[in-house]
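Internal ticket - ligand job 505, NAP:
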Amino acid sequence: MSTLTKSKSAEPKAAELKQYIGGKWVHGSGDREIVSTNPADTRKIIARFRSASRQDALSAIEAAQMAWPQWRAVSSPARGRILAKAAEIARARRDELAALMTREEGKILSEAKGEMDKGIALMDWFSGEGFRLMGQTAPSELPKNLLYTVRQPLGVVSVITPWNFPWAIPVWKICPALVAGNAVVFKPASLVPAMAVELVKIFEQAGLPPGVLNLVIGSGSALGDMLVDEPRIKAVSFTGSNEIGKQVHTLCGKRGIKVTCEMGGKNPAVIWEDADLELAMGGVLRGAFGSTGQRCTATSRLILHEKIADGFLSKLISEIAKIKVGDGLDPAVGMGPAVDESQLKTDLDYIEIARKEGAKLAYGGRRLEQGELKHGYFVEPTIFDGVKPSMRLFKEEVFGPVLAVSRVRDFGQAVELANGVEFGLTSAIYTQDISLAMRFVDKIEAGMVHVNSPTIGGEAQVPFGGIKGSGVGEREMAKEGLHFFTELKTVFLDYTGQRRESNLY
Ligand code: NAP
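stdout (C-alpha cells):
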C-alpha cells in the first residue's frame, strides 16, 4: 500500500471502491484516501478508496443487526442456495478474478487460479451444508421423553482476514457464517480491497438480502477494536498475525464471546534418508517458494537426514536457480513479489539477522532490482544452511521465501527439532517407511500433517488450522468451521402429558 502517481503502462483502470453497508455501496467517511498498487510494479494503481470510519463500522454493525432476524428465519437449505448461486457466478468469473488477485496481491497467475478454485469448492461445500445443519437425538432416561439438539445462529459476527489469501480465506469464513444464519461484518486486509469488493458483489448478485453481509474497508488499527468489542458482535473469526490475533483473542475473552484466531506458522518438512527425493524436491520447492513463501502453511524449515543432506541441498539450489522472479502475470514467472514494502523489509531483515547469527547463506539473499524489477518488491528465493534451534530464523515466522535448513541424525532428533518452536500449524514428512511416517504423525505437534506431500494445502471437507501458537478456537472449513458459527441448544421434550416428580438433575 502506497500513495503513488501515474501508471506508465496500459493497465486496467484503477477501481474506485466503496463500502457496502446495509445493501448500499457508499463512500467511506474516514479521513484517509487509500491507493492500492500492484506489488510487482508500484506504478500500477489497482484501486482507490476513502477508508471506512469508526462510524461506518458502527453503521455496518447496525445494518447487520437489523437484517439478522429475517435472515435467521430463512431456511438453511434456502440460505445454502444463495451460496450455490454465488459459486456459479464465481466459476464464470474465475480467470478474470484470478488476474485481479495477481495484480493486487502478487502471487503468480496459476496460484491465483488455484486459490479461486479452492474458494469455489468451499462455496460448493458450504452451500450443501444448508441441508445438513443437523442436531442429534439421544435416548432419555425418562419414558416418553425426546432429547435432541438444534444448531442456531449467533447473530452478528465479525470476519477479519489477512492479505495473503484474499479470496479463499474470506470465503471459508463468510460462507459458513451465512449458511448458519448469521449476519456478517467483513473487514479484509487493507492491502487487498479490490478482491474483497468483488467477493461481496458476487454475494449481492447471488441474491443475499441487504444488510446480511456488510463490508468495511479501512485500517485494522483504526477499526479493529470496534469489530471485536462492540456489544452487538457475538463472535469473531480472525486470521492474521500472532501479534494481532492475541489482541483479538484477549478482547473476546474479556467479553466472553466466541472467537477463532488462525495465526502464523513455522512449518517443518522432514526429508528422510529413504525418501523419494524427486517427490520431496517438488514438495519443498512448492512449499517453500510458492506464493513467495507468503503462506501460513509455507515450508519455512527443512529438516534433512544427514545422509542425504548435501545431495538434496545442492539439487535444491540448482532448481531454485531456475525460478524466474517477476510479475506473476508473465507465464514464465515462477515466483512473484513480496506483497508490500514492509514485507520486503521483513524478508531482508531476517536474511541479515540469519547472517549475523551465523547461519550459512546457501542461495539468494538479495533484493532484485534489475530492469523492471526495480518497480516492485522482489527478493531472491533464499536458503540458509546450518540453522540452529537457538537462531531467530529457526523460531520466528518470516512470511517470505526464506528457507531454514537443519540436519539430523535420527528420528528422535528430527521430532525434537520439528516440535521445537512456538508454532504448530502444519508439517510434512517424506519417507517410504510407513511405520516411521505413522510415528511422525503421532508425535508431531501440529494441526495438520502431510505424508509425502508438501506442508501447504487444505480441502473444504476437512478441518484446517493449527495448535500451540498457530491457532486458538474452533478449526476452520468442514463441519467444524460451520459449527463455530452456531450455538447448540439441547431440548428436553416430555410427551407423557402427566405431572411427575423427576429425580434427575
Ligand atoms: P495482520 O497484520 O495480523 O492483519 C490481519 C487482519 O487484521 C487485517 O485485516 C488487519 O487489517 C486486521 N487488523 C490489524 N490490526 C487490527 C486490530 N488491532 N484489531 C483487529 N484487526 C486488526 O496479518 P496479515 O499481515 O494481514 O497476514 C499475515 C499473517 O497471517 C501471517 O502471520 C500468516 O501466517 C497469517 N495467516 C494465517 C493463516 C492460518 O490459517 N493460520 C492463513 C493465512 C495467513 P489491516 O490490513 O488494515 O492492517
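Auto-summary: The chain has two domains: 19-263+470-489, 267-451. DSSP finds 15 helices and 25 strands in the chain.
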